[in-house]
Amino acid sequence: MITTEAAFARYERLRPILPQASFPETSRTGRTLEDTMGDYDAYILDAFGVLNRGEAPIPGAVERIAQLRAAGKRLIVLTNAASYTRSGVLAKYHRLGFDFTLDEVVSSRDVAFAHLPEVQGVWAAITADGDDLSDAPAGHYIADLHTQPELLISAAAFLFLSTARWSDADNARLERALQFQMRPVIVANPDLVAPREDGLSLEPGWYAQTLAASTGATMPMFGKPFGNAFDEALRRLPGISPHRIAMVGDTLHTDVLGGAAAGLGTILIQEHGLFRGLSPAPFIEASGLQPDWLVQST
Questions:
Q1: What is the mean pLDDT of the segment spanning 49-67?
Q2: Residue 195 — very low, low, confident or very high, per pLDDT cuts 50/70/90?
Q3: How far apart are CA 111 and CA 232, in angstroms?
Q4: What is the pairing mode between strands 105-107 and 141-144?
């Protein structure tokens, strides 16, 4: 586990490779998303820290989504959770009580799969337990690195989907393999950390940035804050002006920065995600990443 301060500092060091955007001078404030409904016709929702924390729904979030839907608001879930298929992620939301449809869910895994380059050989995937890779795109052979560790040497490329079974020692082994023979590494989750019930977990973006620093490798990333993820989300909201769409999230460097770079309104949820138990004000001041709205909870 890691602290919010450490995660924030690392995100700040990555600013040169993150999208550029402009921000308002001040944020409007509210208690929940209900206070923002006059400003927006559609909401693009992060999952962790907005809908759920780990495997538990955020109190009141199910009811808030129902209220937004009843008011005619369009809804899209845009998640960097790449450990499972989109249908698997949807099933999780349904277990938590949400009523999203498959068309309303965009995962960074889907975006990465849609952009996989052609390679001559096998993709070695860093996966969560139980991932059968059944949604792998046609024309690409993707195998599980955890069950076939010899792929460290023989794989043509690597696909980073999950840290559920990954450790510093695993990352060191991959580092040595890349130093021996440089190969493409695609990162399907740019997040450095994610909020869980007991703290912040390290995510693929954290390990990938460590690898990039030690090997000099360029590692294309798919998901927030990058435009490839927002392009797919916006494709599902035709006819709505971007300024009438809000990106709702719990982090400054993925949700607020990414949403602003895409020309969207931005809403930072304070109580359940990266800034749980903290005021986001000093982090906003230090980074200049000012959301349009600051609300306490979903």
A1: 93
A2: confident
A3: 8
A4: unpaired
For the entire predicted model, the pTM comes to 0.95
Residue type at 189 in one-letter notation? N
Q: Where are the beta strands (DSSP E) in the chain?
A: 28-30, 42-45, 52-53, 56-57, 74-79, 105-107, 122-126, 141-144, 157-160, 185-187, 193-196, 199-202, 245-249, 265-269, 293-295
Contact 237, 245 (CB under 8 A): yes
Burial of 14 (0-12, 13-18, 19+ CB in 10 A): middle
Distance, first Cα to last Cα, the chain: 25
3-class DSSP assignment, residue 176: helix
Kindly report the backbone phi and psi dihedral angles of residue 217, in degrees, each rounded to the nearest multiple of 5, phi listed first: -70, 145
Least confident range from 46-50, 83-87, 118-122, 287-291: namely 83-87
CA dihedral 73→74→78→84, nearest 10 degrees, is 110
Type of residue at 241: S
Nearest-angstrom CA–CA distance, 144 and 126: 6
pLDDT (0 to 100) of residue 241: 97
